[in-house]
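Q: A reviewer asked whether we had any structural model of the full assembly, not just the individual parts. We don't, so I'm hoping you can provide one. Inputs are below.
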Amino acid sequence: MNMIIMGPPGSGKGTQASRIAEVYGVPAVSTGDMLREAISNGTQRGLEAKAFMDKGELVPDQVVIDIVKERLAEADAQQGFLLDGFPRSAVQAESLGETLAGAGKKIDLVINVAVPDDEIIRRLSRRRVCPKCNAVYHLDHQPPKVAGMCDKCGADVVQRNDDNETTIAHRLEVYRQNSEPLIEYYRNMGLLVEVPGTKTIDEVFGEIRAHIEGKL
Ligand code: ADP
Ligand code: ZN
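A: Here is a predicted structure for the entire assembly that you could use as a starting point for your response.
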């Protein structure tokens, strides 16, 4: 099954994406993770993306479109995939549709995780991430077992460059402007299901699961 998970920054979609990937055996394709990896590897793409990401702006469409195209052409994505953080603009959504159509494929399900603004700001400013394995933590709700250390790989957890209050506010604006309209776009295509991101991680996953099972 080919899926997309959408939601505002801090909606918990990355956490849900890992669970879905694990349970349904599809790769979670996160443009945010791939871009951060490009930055830490010092590639040309990474250099190009960093300035936009640090400001909370969208990276230019063509950059992410190319990354996703390459990733979806890999062997492990042929039996299904889950896109996390892509598409984030109308141009990206149209491009994805065309690329898939060209390969005789389509999107089967779009999951939207909804969370109100005040909750998003609370979550993002307390978020910590593992730069090595991309695990996500929250200082209050899901702290690492040993303070400052990733449960999964032992690396030091860090605060992302773009998880500061000014940039968070800007990311929310960018989301409203560019990405939120995609909810309507996919609803009109009959592909959208919505889950409230304010419940517990397990409860949200339970709802997502029910929607996926309904499509299998
Ligand atoms: P979040 O959802 O918490 O904002 P992500 O890791 O998905 O975190 O994205 C972080 C940043 O990476 C975005 O603010 C943006 O600069 C860049 N980015 C990720 N995906 C895309 C995309 N599809 N198009 C443009 N920029 C993107
Ligand atoms: Zn880790």
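A: Points you may want to mention in the reply: The chain has a mean pLDDT of 96. Strands lie at 2-6, 28-30, 81-84, 109-114, 127-129, 136-138, 192-196.
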